[in-house]
Amino acid sequence: MTAPAYKFGDFRLDGNRFELVRDGRRLKLERKPMELLLLLAEGRGRLVTRQEIVELLWKGEVFVDTEHGINTAVRKIRTVLKDDPENPMFVQTVTGKGYRFVATVVKEYTEPSKAQHLLQSEAQTAVVSPSSSIPPIQEKKTSRRIWISIATAVAVLAATTIEFAGPSGMRVFRLRQPAISSIAVIPLDNLSGDPKQDYYADGMTDELITMLARDSTLRITSRTSVMQYKGAHRPLRDIAQALNVDAIVEGSVELTGNHVHMNLQLIRAETDSHIWANSYDRDNNDTSTLPDVAAREIAAQLNKVAETAKPVKRVNPEAHDAFLRGQYLWYVGPNEESGKYFQKAVDIDPNYAAGWAGLSEYLDMRAMNGQGNSIEILAKAETAARKAVELDDSLVLAHNNLGASLLFNHWDAASALKEVNRAIELDERNSQALHLKAKILCAENQFEAANQVQAQSTAANPFAHPGARAEIYDCTRQYDKAIQEGQLRLRGSPTAYDILGVLANAYHWKGDDRRSVDYLARWYDARGNHEQSDVVRRAFREGGYRAVLEAELEFLEKGARAGTSLPVQLARLEAMLGQRDEAIEYLKEAADEHAPLLVFFLNNPCFDSLHNDKRFQAIATRVGLPYKPPSRFVNIAESEVGV
């Protein structure tokens, strides 16, 4: 039998060869997406319903989530065609019904090769044979359905031949595939049709990641790393390669009233083959345990169940929903709103450990940003963190937040490290816990150890704190290394403001103020403050670097008058301007307020001119940190400060 070929745009889709070609180059497309593309192209503008797709392409297959299978196939078609779902040139979605191929299609026929004739003949025999595993084709179906089924049979036969037919007819068995040791959970699709439900899809993604890290011995890619692929139409193999994982979990979730439907499938990245799939239907009372149930099933499928794993407790559905909303806002902003939802979660369910942990993290960040009375806020943050640990000692975030509270609220580095080490014991690849440990070590001038720990954090999650190692080099006055590291990380994160800030500092201490100001301006741009970016550029043109420092000082003083407490940042600028007394006064104010940033800034190069001042030494001693810089530091003379 001769199958048709279709020409549309720059593409040619050949039913005989089961291939898609563009400009003479064969494009890779897996079997199901190829079958669906043939089906849609044959329709040439006719609506092809989802039910029809299921009947033609998935009938007879068991343990398959056809809804997600269709979504995945359509996504892969759009990827290879470079088709925008919002403005489709080829595949148009008819919401709730199916798909329509909207490009102009020219249909033609080509004769299959002799080998293809043989395979098709065998395929037809296999299709109509009662003993075949492929369902028989009913005569009343259209010829289009027949040749699609034949194409499927040909693909199956070809795969079978490759797998079992060795030289001289010798039986060859498939080699055992390597074990899977690492997984990335791609952000779940929101199938509700309501963008306001994005918080729920993202929240369930976060919880699935957390539960997999807790319940399995697999290496699980962090949320920060995978969220860049939200809505991205890229081949899973490419995503897996970028994230350095063996397999991908993808799926969807739909929240309708009090009912939740979630589809998940586990795919081996190297072969793009399905390993496991499942669908879950729950009412609201069970949704808080759903990510844990799914994580356990995935871990069991791969024989990677953690010995210490234990089922999570059910949470009041309203509290769980409030927590998911707070967590969503925590990541996308505004943070102030996220705090309201975290507070609501624990008000509804006082035994909700994750809610207390989220509240603690939010409060710590408020103190870091100078939003309110630091002493009062830090005390509340510590209370929330202790409550979270008391309710769930296995919660990584709870121990990490308690470590932060002990450091900021009590300046107790030893106790802080104990809690952070407990978090790392629970999850040795938790980048946030590793990062905080590196920050504590850096504050105590243990830079070699800090650099090693931060390297582990960066390896676990290159996107969370990309400028952290460059900052350590900056603190050790190794400015060339700081610049080298910063420039390297900037390639992958061109708008990461922590990298831009370190580069601005390092270039200044290297004596290249033009570049320093350029990166400072880019730092403001990355934070969305384009007005201040213009201010610092103009200040440099008109008055040099000192004018930039003065403009920065004016900007921060304006914030302080508006109620934001930033004494450490103000002390930094005064010190760089050579205003020793003013800098010391701001540092005293920071110590009185328990300003969290104080513990991280005392070894900053901007304060080198103050290290011999007994007032500075007294402040450092009060905080409990070493004030004498290591001998490898290069002290900056007072006459050079601020020029």
Largest sheet: 6 strands, mixed
Which bin fits the share of residues in helices?
55-70%
**What is the radius of gyration computed over CA atoms, rounded to a whole number of angstroms?**
30 Å
Given helix and strand content, the structural type is: alpha+beta
The number of strands is: 14
- Strand percentage: 5-15%
Low-pLDDT sequence parts: 112-175, 634-643
| DSSP summary: helix tally | 26
Span between termini: 83 Å
Key features of this structure:
single chain; 643 residues; alpha+beta; 6-stranded mixed beta sheet; 5-stranded antiparallel beta sheet; 26 helices; globular; disordered C terminus
How are the SSEs ordered, and which strands pair?
Elements lengths: L3 E5 L2 E4 L4 E4 L2 E3 L3 H13 L4 E2 H8 L8 H16 L9 E4 L3 E4 L4 E4 L4 H15 L14 H22 L17 E4 L3 E2 L7 H18 L3 E2 L2 H4 L9 H8 L3 E10 L2 E10 L4 E11 L6 H12 L15 H16 L2 H14 L4 H16 L5 H18 L4 H15 L2 H14 L4 H13 L3 H14 L7 H8 L3 H14 L4 H13 L3 H14 L3 H32 L5 H10 L3 H14 L4 H4 L12 H10 L20
Parallel strand pairs: 9-11, 9-12, 10-12
Antiparallel strand pairs: 1-2, 1-8, 2-3, 3-4, 5-7, 6-7, 12-13, 13-14
Helix pairs in contact: 1-3, 1-5, 4-5, 6-9, 6-10, 10-11, 10-12, 11-12, 12-13, 12-14, 13-14, 14-15, 14-16, 15-16, 16-17, 17-18, 18-19, 18-20, 19-20, 20-21, 21-22, 22-23, 23-24, 24-26
Summarize the structure.
With about 650 residues, the chain is α+β, with helices and mostly antiparallel strands.
